[in-house]
Amino acid sequence: MIRVSVVGAKGRMGGHVVEAVRGAADMELALALDAGDDLTLISPENTDVVVEFTVPSASLGNVLALVAQGVDVVVGTTGWTEERLEQVRQAIAAGPRPGGQKVFVAPNFAISAVLADHFAVQAAKYFESAEVIEMHHPDKVDAPSGTALHTARAIAAARRAAGMGPMPDATQTDGGSRGQVVDGVHVHAVRLRGLNAHEEVLLGNAGEQLVIRADSFDRGSFMPGVLLAVRRLAADAPAGLTVGLDSFLDL
């Protein structure tokens, strides 16, 4: 049995994780902690893998504390930057298990979103234009979403590797309506009651368009990816920091 502790257990996502762990035949819930609880209660003696689903302002501190305690961590909180990820790498190197510690960070745990991101990267080098639209419920605290940022950066990297130049855009003044520019890719964020988590990648050439869309209608759609990450960290995932669920899929 894989002993799993959940940090952020009373949150929207954390509550789903608690129920998913309880429903998994190969896992048992060790501890369910939330804001204000003592993270030092979690240790290698009672936990194999921690799942951290909190808020961006608290996540980095939580992860650094858990690394210092020598436990492996699956992180579902968004808002991660390269600077924050580097702090995690340094913490792993200085931690109690520098050769065996595992931390996994996922911009998105939905299999559909991971595949959409993968397909968009494959397609990006064949299209002159690409933009990302992400749509979420209005209670989401960050914008653009971590998934959209990850998608935009991956599209930009694929375009650079293919030797492509800047995308055409004759807009002069727009008052911000063109969205945030991420490595040259425009990213648009929609917050609307009734939505859950949705992303569209629009790719265009003269006379043609490709639309890649992923929809998660319920938070339960993220749980298979969370449980997959837990199982991989408990088994054969490489030591150190791993980013992206695509690392654990046969893509």
TrEMBL record:
Keywords: Amino-acid biosynthesis, Cytoplasm, Diaminopimelate biosynthesis, Lysine biosynthesis, NAD, NADP, Oxidoreductase. Pfam families: DapB_C (PF05173), DapB_N (PF01113). GO terms for biological process: diaminopimelate biosynthetic process; lysine biosynthetic process via diaminopimelate. Residues 114-246 form the Dihydrodipicolinate reductase C-terminal domain. One of its GO terms (cellular component) is cytosol. NAD(+) binds at G8, A9, K10, G11, R12, M13, D34, G76, T77, T78, A106, P107, N108, F109. Homotetramer. This is 4-hydroxy-tetrahydrodipicolinate reductase. It comes from Bifidobacterium pullorum subsp. saeculare. The lineage of its organism: Bacteria, Bacillati, Actinomycetota, Actinomycetes, Bifidobacteriales.
